[in-house]
Amino acid sequence: MKGKNLWVIPLVFVALVIVSGCVGDSGGATGNSALIDDDTVKGDADAPVTIVEFSDFECPYCARFYRDTLGQIDDTYIKTGKGKMVFRDFPLGFHKQAQKAAEAAECAGEQGKFWDMHDMLFENGVSGGITSFKQYAKDLGLNTADFDECLDSDAMADEVKKDMKDGSAAGVSGTPAFFINGELITGAQPFSKFKQVIDKELQKGGNA
Ligand SMILES: [Ca+2]
Ligand SMILES: [Ca+2]
Q1: Which end of the chain is more exposed for a tag (fewer CB within 10 A), N or C?
Q2: What is the whole-number distance in angstroms between the Cα of residue 53 and the centre of ligand 1?
């Protein structure tokens, strides 16, 4: 009798993962902490806890994380120097605007405005495609000639692809996915989950 109910637990787990993230079809080995790469860091570079996010600007769960959780992580850990955040690209193939949106953020990053474009893309959406990304660049006061050239020439395409490849190799199969000092958290989980893992890392006293 007892044994019959055991299958319920893995099923519930799978359901939780599916409802809180955009699921792709890649996958691989477990994560490691050497995932910062060349991507823009938010916060103190020497902060003891490193949060690497793999994200897709077209994934509603990534937008949910941005809306509901990132601000709390920022206030509690990043602004206080305890944590730093690195954003890496994982644009899923069935999200038609996601690749170019990722490139748009990187092109803005070339002008020192990565996080501004990141916020703009999550707040205003990506359905307008390249036309709207160019408008966002204008609204952010970027050099639009340089931005448009960067976006139109696919200058950042390989950088975005490399992020995705690294993510897959580290075990990411959907978005958002996070490595907190190397520990993988998948989906748009509540702040309490991040707090639990980050606090554990802080108690350890630094980089894992
Ligand atoms: Ca990168
Ligand atoms: Ca990137």
Answers
A1: N
A2: 11
| Span from the CA of 3 to the centroid of ligand 2 (angstroms) | 46
Ligand nearest to the CA of 114: 2
Closest CA to 59 of 90, 15, 13, 17: 90
What is the reported pLDDT for 31? 39
- Residue 29 pLDDT more than 50? no
| Burial profile 99-130: b = 16 or more Cβ within 10 angstroms, e = fewer | bbbbbbbbbbbebebbbbbbbbbbeeebeeeb
* Cα of 77 from ligand 2 centre, angstroms: 22
Which residue would you say has higher pLDDT here, 205 or 183? 183
Chain-wide mean pLDDT for the chain? 89
pTM of the model: 0.86
Q: What class has domain 50-203?
A: alpha beta
Q: What is the pLDDT of residue 7?
A: 58
Which one of the ligands is nearest to 156 CA? Answer: 2
